[in-house]
Amino acid sequence: MFLFILGNCLRVIVKIRMDISVIVPLFNEEESITPMYDAITQALEPLKLKYEILFVDDGSSDSTFSMGKEIARKDPRLRMIKFRKNYGQTPAMAAGIDHAVGDILFTMDGDLQNDPSDIPFFLDKMAEGYDIVVGWRHKRKDKLVSRKIPSKIANWLIGKVTGVPIKDNGCSLKAYKASVIKSIPLYSEMHRFIPAMASLAGVRVAEIRVKHHARQFGESKYGLSRVFKVLSDLLMIKMIVSFSSRPMFWFAILAIPLMVFSMFVISVAMYDSFYSTVTLSLSMVGSGVLLGALSFFLIICGALSELIYKTRDKDVNKLPMLTLVTLDANAQNDPDVSTPGEG
């Protein structure tokens, strides 16, 4: 107990530098939390690296948090973070990333489907100079209709829309350089789009095959119901990746076809009225006016977006300024350490 309190006090006073931080969101995983802790420690101990484990309790209603506290009392390398209610996987990951002090951050699911024994392979790949390494569940142990097929379609669509060809965006087992991931804003269900978001900064992304196990306890928290969330987030990511510095252009792309179609419909209605015996069609004119109004509305939204972009403090705008290396001859900085937002 004394070591647990002392370790946490030291972390508050001084940020102890770690080689690795492993972040695991948990939601009603009381049966999985102890096996998960054991699997992570067994995978990391042989590496002889300084590491920490962050379990983020995403508002569990079972004994997940209390069981985690018991483990943390015995091992100060484990830290528990608890939400007051369930917010979702991405906010849980974001909280873990914010509290992590490791140079390399790993994220994984807490249901024992990801295998911590793959961590050394991620480290080997990152040693080749990559900033993000993504896991690919090439032999996925999930249901075909509700999980595998929607996942394949989503991954193909995400690759086409974002231009970042990742085979398995939904795999939570990923490794990041802390200097990169801490500068990427996460919200909604955006954790699966991190490689696409990071592409704004020109980071190097690799993908490796990882093991995937069938779920041992409980039931999956996800299903077909999240398809709409993924599609809406994909639309947002496309806008951020392609038009983050020029939102007006995005709205103009949407508005111009509507304006052209509006003018065409009104012109046809007026032509029929003036050069034939056909009575002016109020329905056609009304449709044209509505389309024109929608086009004008989109232009106004684009102008407001430009105003917001130019005047507010933007996390997304910092992505292109991620510095690879900052050298300071006077301070003798380590050239291997990246400093975001400088240089």
Q: Using the alpha-carbon principal axes, give the shape.
A: elongated
Kindly state the number of beta strands.
Answer: 7
Order of helices and strands: HEHEHEHEHEHEHHEHHH
Kindly name the structural category.
Answer: alpha/beta
Q: List low-confidence stretches.
A: 329-343
* CATH superfamily annotation of the largest domain: Spore Coat Polysaccharide Biosynthesis Protein SpsA, Chain A
What's the structural domain tally? 2
C-alpha Rg, in Å?
Answer: 25 Å
Which topology of the largest domain does CATH recognise? Answer: Spore Coat Polysaccharide Biosynthesis Protein SpsA, Chain A
In terms of DSSP E residues, the strand content is 5-15%
* Arithmetic mean pLDDT: 79
Question: What fraction, in percent, of the residue positions are helical?
Answer: 40-55%
Can you summarize the main beta sheet?
7 strands, mixed
Descriptive overview:
The chain is α/β, with parallel strands linked by helices and 343 residues long. The chain has 2 domains: 15-243, Spore Coat Polysaccharide Biosynthesis Protein SpsA, Chain A; 247-312. It has 11 helices and 7 strands. The protein has a 7-stranded mixed β-sheet with strand order 3-2-1-4-6-5-7, sandwiched between helices. Helix 6 runs parallel beside helix 9. The radius of gyration is 25 Å and the shape is elongated. The two termini are 44 Å apart.
Provide a short characterization of the protein structure.
The chain has helices at 2-13, 33-44, 64-74, 89-99, 119-126, 144-162, 178-181, 194-198, 227-243, 247-275, 282-311, and strands at 18-26, 51-57, 78-82, 102-107, 132-136, 174-177, 205-209. The protein is built from 11 helices and 7 strands. The protein has 343 residues and is α/β, with parallel strands linked by helices.
